[in-house]
Here is the input.
Amino acid sequence: MEYTINVHGRLIDLSRPQVMGILNVTPDSFYAGSRKQTEREIAERAERIVAEGGTMIDVGAFSTRPGAPQVSEKEEMERLRRGLAIVCRCCPDAVVSVDTFRPDVARMAVEEYGAGIINDVSEGDVRGAFGGPSCDGRAEETEDVPEMFRMVARLGVPYILMSVRPTVGDMMKAFAREVRQLRDLGAKDIILDPGFGFGKTLEQNYELLAGMDLLTEMGLPLLVGVSRKSMIFRLLGTTPDESLNGTTVLNTMALERGASILRVHDVREAVEAVKMFGMLKCK
Here is the structure.
């Protein structure tokens, strides 16, 4: 589909899928290759994402891996301030996304560092940020507008709305309501993320991928983040370090089913998958 998003007045064309590289300024993200702590490590990771063809850098300062210790909002902000200053300095032309579920953290990142996209793993509900019971698809429907929705609408930046619902049907019902809430607030650019690995069993992750093309009926671009996740290494009996091949396979399947953005640890391999997929579409 033909999609564009407006990032601070710059139109990003998503008709050709884009690759978003992951940069975690945390000590405990599940994949060691994405953890960057020193100024040099952060700068080198950001520069490598761009050099390998990534057009977006997703900076996170709060690990959402199962069992990870939670950090305070103050600590998340301190980590992000340091990381964003480095990324913006060394890669000024890259689109910077910030991975956070906290409205005030989103505001800081946009207002102080010009972050262009907010990537929210909580579906607007911090209680369900890690796929918890408050957002498992059985919770009572509510018309209460999440504070994060109000914040991103006020900031005027594209918003990645990730679902923790377990099935495509539940997901589409929730997305329909949430997109309407966002539109009513004036939010313009909304990107949907099925939320692989969040609030879903191994089997549900693959059922979701099989039917993911149904989400394109929402008329919005889709972001897919399966990179080195447990749905790969649990199925294959391996580890995150051994999950690159499985990641590329699933990324290709996601492209076939309508993904507009791939969020990945391994940028070069994802860019190659996009390029080869594009040749198929040309025939």
User: Anything to note?
Assistant: Confidence is low (pLDDT under 50) at residues 131-140. The radius of gyration is 17 Å. Residues 3 and 14 are 5 Å apart (CA to CA).
